[in-house]
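> Could you send the Polyamine ABC transporter substrate-binding protein prediction when you get a chance?

Sure thing. Input:
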Amino acid sequence: MSTAASSSEAGPAGSLKAQLRRAERLRKLKAFGLVAPLALFLIIVFVVPIGSMLWRSVDNTELESVMPLTTAGLQQWDGMGLPDEATVGVFVEELRDSRQGGGLGRISRRLNYEDSGYRGLLMRTLRGLPSVSAESGGDWTQTLVDIDAAWGETSTWLGIQRAAPATTDRYLLASVDLERDDTGQIQRVSEGERLYQAVFQRTLVIAGGVTLICLALGFPLAYLLATLPARTSNLLLILVLLPFWTSLLVRTAAWIILLQSNGLVNQSLMASGLIDSPMQLVFNRIGVFFAMVHILLPFMVLPLYSVMKGISPSYQRAAVSLGAHPFAAFWQVYVPQTVSGIAAGTILVFIMALGYYITPALVGGPADQMVSYYVAYYTNSTNNWGMAAALGSILLVVTLMLYLVYHRLVNRKQLIRN
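Output:
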């Protein structure tokens, strides 16, 4: 009887557990169904483009897709003397075939990254090749040398060999002013060709300067909005949000008009007697800071305002009533509670400033262009997608590293205060 009783008790209990498990699975499926569209959207518009950019920075399939047999032969070559006759014959045959389907343009563009003379060399070679097929035999190495003496130089074939692998670190190295020599060792490019390290440094300096100025202006403004009566605060908040309703291009063009030699700013300064002649305020770093701070300031004010609005003023009044100086109460009691808003605002403004293109391009001078300018240049002007992707990848890595360092520092400060 006891066994039957225990079985009857275990039966309902087991059934209840099964029902709970089914309910839990159903709850998870519903939660997944709600999240799935957003996850799919992020994968399509965020993960896939970034993954494509990272792949483009090492993609080197132009030569392999047009000359698969030549690339295979050159990768077996030891780099001494000249390639064997079979490899040269295959190269001649595939060079002829490359005139169809736009292959010649792709390999010419890729080889020109190694040396600017390859395009002309390939064109001269195609015009001088005899009509006989390479498969019929013959001394094709000598034929190429007779057309152009460059084919008798080892460096010419080494350049093609460097472009043969399906992946390359050439673009990533070039993005930080590095290159590989003929022996494969990494070295710095010549001093006259060094550019991108200075560009990255300039980008970080401009983004950091804009962020600090926005913080210096945005913190007191957000504090004022959070402490004023609701009616006045809402009116001022509308003025803060007003730039969002104006096109970025229009705002940038407006700053050019305001800051030019005969603009309102210079005219006002001269009318007040502060200056005797117009100052150069546009097409330089000053104009870039003016325009970028104006555009990005709301992104600093809004996170600060949202945090400050939730801070009770009684904490600061309590500190003053206990004998603290008003400034000490503000600095030691109020400011620590705004750390999350400061962190959100600074990281938001800094990351947005890193990728700015239109404003520095229009308001700044040649020495004020940021990484985004060169990404656009390689994408739109030279069609060098590898270099554009490499610059974007380096900027992405730098941004992630700085964010991780910043995040750790903020968390450490909060732990110390707690």
